Amino acid sequence: MDYILLDADVKIAEVTTFWRPLLSAVELQGHLAPLVGMRP
Length: 40
Description:
The chain is α+β, with helices and mostly antiparallel strands. The protein has one domain. It is 28% helix and 28% strand. Strands 1-2 form a two-stranded antiparallel sheet. Strand 1 and strand 2 form a beta hairpin. It is flat, with a radius of gyration of 11 Å. The chain starts with a strand and ends in an 8-residue tail after the last helix. The model has no long low-confidence stretch (mean pLDDT 86).
C-alpha cells in the first residue's frame, strides 16, 4: 500500500510505502522522481 501526500501546491510532500519489497519501492521511486524534478 502506498500513500502519497500532496502539499498546497499539489506537489508530492511525502510518500509512505507499507510492506512492499525493496525492488518495487525503488521502481516506484524511479517513476516518481522525474515527475518532481529529482534524479531516480
